[in-house]
């Protein structure tokens, strides 16, 4: 992703990647990145969890504005256990409706 990002950025378009593999993202030196400490495939949290998904998007958009040096990775500090707990609660609420 970092290689594609650099090409896009060379055209004057800012980019940000959302990653669950911090070590890989650091190695390729993506121009801007947001690290989410969650399992592979869950870059935006659990399905239907709009609050968490919104948080990821807003963090990424903020990263575009604040990161000035290539290779910076912003960490979203919401543990996966918390995301899953909230997701299960939302699922139970939906079943009651």
Which strand order spans the largest sheet, edge to edge or round the barrel? 1-2-3
Q: Characterize the quaternary organization of these chains.
A: single chain
Averaging pLDDT over every residue, what do you get?
90
> With helices defined by DSSP (H or I, 4 residues minimum), what is the helix count?
4
Residues in helix, % = 40-55%
- Describe the largest sheet: 3 strands, parallel
How much is the radius of gyration in Å?
Answer: 15 Å
What are the low-pLDDT stretches, counting only 5+ consecutive residues below 50?
none
Order of helices and strands: HEHEHEH
| Tally of structural domains | 1
Silhouette? elongated
Structural class: mainly alpha
Strand portion, in percent? 5-15%
* Cα separation of the termini: 41 Å
**What is the number of strand segments?**
3
Structural account:
This protein has 97 residues and is mostly helical. The protein has one domain. Helices cover 52% and strands 11% of the residues. It contains four helices and three strands; from the N terminus they run H-E-H-E-H-E-H. Strands 1-2-3 form a three-stranded parallel beta sheet, sandwiched between helices. Strand 2 (32-35), helix 3 (50-66) and strand 3 (72-75) form a beta-alpha-beta unit. The protein starts with a helix and ends with a helix. The relative contact order is 0.19.
């Amino acid at each position: 992703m970092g290689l594609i990002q650099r090409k896009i950025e060379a055209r004057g378009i800012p980019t940000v990647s959302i990653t669950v593999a911090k070590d890989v993202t650091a190695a390729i030196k993506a121009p801007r990145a947001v690290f989410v400490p969650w399992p592979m495939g869950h870059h935006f949290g659990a399905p239907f969890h709009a609050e968490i998904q919104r948080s990821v998007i807003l963090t990424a958009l903020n990263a575009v504005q604040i990161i000035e040096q290539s290779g910076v990775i912003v960490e979203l500090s919401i543990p996966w256990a918390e995301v899953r707990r909230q997701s299960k609660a939302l699922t139970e609420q939906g079943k009651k409706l």
